[in-house]
Every structure is written in structure tokens, then in C-alpha cells.
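Hi U.,

Before I forget, here's the chain from the pilot set. I'm dumping it here mostly so it's searchable later in email.
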Amino acid sequence: RDLVRSRGLGDVYKRQDIFFLKKETGETEMKKHIGIIGGGAAGMMAAVTAARKGTKVTILERNDRIGKKILQTGNGKCNLGNRNLTVECYHGGDAAWIKQALERFGTEDTVCFFQKIGLLIKEKNGYLYPVSEQAASVLDVLRYELQTLGVEIIYGCKVQKVERTLSGKLVVNDGDREWQFDAVILTCGGKAAPGTGSDGSGWKIAKKAGHTCIAPVPALVQLRCLETDLLKGIAGVRADSRVRILCDGRETDVERGELQLTEYGISGIPIFQLSRDVNYLLRDRKTVMAEIDFLPDMTEESYENMKETRRMLQEKRTAEEFFTGILNKKLMSVFLKIAGIKPTTPAVEIPEDKINTFYELCRCFRLHITESNPYENAQVAAGGIAVTEVTEDMESKLCPGLYFAGEILDVDGRCGGYNLQWAWSSGFIAGCSAAIKTE
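Structure:
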């Protein structure tokens, strides 16, 4: 009705699968039709945006329901954005290209969008969550808005290709069925969490249309290490740490946060942040190590003072008693073993070089990284369709009428709601641009 009032049109009616707007003069105008491949976060945002512009919208979804991956985000709480939004929070692509997209639809736009469709939002240190702390709430308000706008959803569609006809229409084929649209938006994700439907098929579709796919790797994922025998003794330990990545002995990156030690390697937010770059180094067959500082708040001076003042504890204690109080007990036991110190040895009898070895391990514990966990464990995939082949309106430069949004593009963000923000931003731009261009 709002569309009719804004355009001065008469009644809106449906005849078979073709929509018409009937003007008061009696003339008819066919309503433009946009197809969206993939019903994830970016796809739903694109669908809502395009439908609000007055176009007919159809989502082609391979699963039996939309938004599966949303339910997994933020450990089920859905970290849907972040107040501290900057282009530095993103990798891949082109910084200027990413920046303009975030400026066109940023954090405040996301908050406003969701509040208007009924979602209450709260903030924790800049991180945005639904007040319910349930990802299902985010998915539900999106589903209800799609219903209200009359967006059609067709399930069980495993699209294989998109082709542009001589007339300018885009034909979508899933092997058994065929659809024709005025514009198509590819939002079928990358390869992370393939159980939700993201299996890389979107990249194959884009490549058939002539696009380049930057080599993908798992990102925001745990890292596996060579020293599994040693790690079994410290699995389960969580510790505030500074983690440096060394490639062929040279520092390439560093992160600070709560580290989690596992039987196979290392996890936690700082590891997730480092994982994409580590995977690219490993892909290039580089030797990669993680150097962990378990005393990240200590300056070099305070570290030396600590070692000196602890000498007074040596006199009447065993090695185990002497080193207690510095680190988690599991870590202490393993470091004693590495340093060649028996726990029952009187502290005064421990050679100085072995004491120094223990202390060095506290600040410089090294693990050889062999690989990451697979896409099944990754929150996002790095790599994707080269943004140099995509306009600022998210339209293909090679196939007019074909648009992209979300993880399918060579853009991936840090932990903290940045990847969902990219889905909202790119989805909005693609949906808006496709609708306006097809008018």
C-alpha cells in the first residue's frame, strides 16, 4: 500500500506468477523480479531491502529452512554487530572498497534496522546482542519481516549456474528447474560451517560467470600443533596470554587475549584472530610457530624483579613448591618436565640454567603449527570473489544484473560481530542497488 501511495498507483493484483501494478489510467506495468540465491544473513537483508523498494523477491534456499548459520553465531547468542566498527577490523579485498560499504550501512544503521522490525538490542563493551541473548530472536524477526513483505522462499534449490540472456534477463538453473529474473544476488556464503549449506557452490557459480575466486582458507578457527604429547598434559588450561606468530623465525603478527590449550593445539579469541593469516602462510608451505607469553602484563623490568625476589623462597622449598603461584598448576608441571627439574628436588639444588629455562618458558613457550581445524570448525572463510571485479554497488563488472553480498566476497572480519555486520552492510547495498537498477 505504501508503494501504491508513493507512486500514485491504483490496486495491486497477482495473475499467475507475474505481478502487475495497475495505474488509474488502466495501463499495466510488470513488477520487476529479483532472485536471491542463499537465505543466510546477507540474503535475508538483501531480500528485505529489495522488497521494501517495491520489487518482487524470491529467495532460492538449498536447505529446508533459512538462516541456519545465524543460529550458531555468538555461541547461540548472536553477536550481530559492534560499535567499534572500522575498516581495520577486516581482511582481504580492498580497504577503500570495504570502507565505503561500511559507511553506507554501518553499526547504527544495523541497530535502527533491527529495532524497527521488533528486536531489542543490548551492548556489552561495544558488542551488540539481542536482549533475549538468543540467536533465534534475530532469525525470527527477519523471517516475520520477509513474510510481511511477501518475499517468496523456495527450498531445496541447489543452484548450479546463473546465465545472462541476450534480453538482459538472468536465468538461474538448479539442474531440474529454471527461473528467470531481472537481477540475481548471490549470497550463498563461502565454505565455513558446511553443515549449514555453505559448501563453496557460490564460488563455482560466480566462476562460471567469469569471476576470479581468491584462494580460500578457514578463518576464525582453532590451530593444530605438532607437540600433541606435550599438550595432553595442559589441555583445558585457559590463560590470558600474548601470542606471537613466527614465520621462518620472523614475527608476522601478534594478539592478546584468553588462550585455550587443547589436546591437539591452541584455541581462543587471539588464535581465531590469527588463524586466517597463519593458514595462508601454511598454504605457502612456510614454517609457522606460535610463541606464547603467559605473563603478558609484565614488563622486562618487572619480570627480572620477580625472578630476583623469588630467590628468598628457595631455601626451604622443593622445586614444585618454589614455582607454585606463577602459572596454572598444569603448566607448571609441564614446564618443570621440559626444564628437566624433578618436582621433589630441593629448590636450592636446582642449577641456575634450569631455573632460567623454566622462567623463559613462562614468557616464550613455542609450539609448531601444522594446520588449522577444517571448515567444519571455522566461523568464516577467508578468500572469495575478488572485489576488484565488483562495483561499489555490489554488482558484477563482468555480468550486469548479477550482485554479491556476504561471505562469498573476498572480505572477512575479526571476531566480535564484524562478519555479521558485513552481511548486513553488503546485503543492504546489493538489495537496494538491484531494486533501483531494475526499476
